[in-house]
Specification:
single chain, mainly alpha
Length: 200
């Protein structure tokens, strides 16, 4: 594709991105996009897990670098559909806390399981995050626009983790990432303790 052709794509991309935003401001019946966009960043437990997916992908390198951040939102959308439709998923808050613990541990140890195992871990925990998002849809708002919003927000958090993970190419960066994994793990333990009533 030539530079001229690429430049011509920008107006199309702008229109595609602005369309949901325009609909989101039409009223409560058409809103939801901005609520979905802000929802994942409203809780530190979600943020830590999403960023950890990007960090782990950066440690693993290609193809996990992009497969993990694609897998998580896709499976999360399925979990959200379960929540929107009223299907129960047991121990959602425990699963969310567990995601920070396990993903933080993977980053801290710089674990390198088979790709299928890494995808299974990420996909398993995505169900809990998605279900939590789905059940917290604000009344009177579009479930579709809300879902699009939180999937985009999740992708941006993954991208942040990947960007931070670029320091993996240096030895000091590898140590920093492992320390970041330890922080995520401790955060998960705190959330788990709070959920169990052990911590206030």
């Amino acid at each position: 594709m030539t530079t001229r052709n690429r430049a011509g794509l920008w107006p199309v991309i702008f229109l595609l991105l602005s369309a949901p935003l325009a609909v989101a401001h039409e009223g409560s019946s058409g809103g939801g996009f901005l609520s979905g966009l802000s929802h994942p960043v409203g809780g530190l437990d979600h943020i830590l897990a999403m960023v950890a997916v990007g960090l782990w992908g950066a440690q693993l390198g290609r193809p996990a670098l992009w497969l993990l951040p694609v897998c998580f939102p896709l499976v999360m959308a399925l979990g959200a559909a379960c929540g929107l439709l009223g299907f129960a998923v047991p121990a959602v808050e425990t699963g969310i806390a567990g995601s920070a613990i396990v993903l933080g541990l993977m980053v801290m140890l710089e674990a390198r399981p088979a790709l299928a195992a890494a995808l299974s871990i990420v996909g398993f925990f995505a169900i809990f995050h998605g279900h939590a998002h789905g059940t917290e849809l604000p009344p009177g708002q579009s479930g579709l626009l809300y879902s699009v919003g939180f999937v985009i927000s999740t992708g941006l958090l993954h991208a942040s983790g990947i960007a931070i993970g670029l320091v993996h190419r240096w030895n000091v960066g590898r140590l920093a990432l492992r320390a970041a994994g330890a922080v995520v793990l401790v955060g998960g333990l705190v959330f788990l303790g709070q959920g169990a009533g052990l911590l206030s």
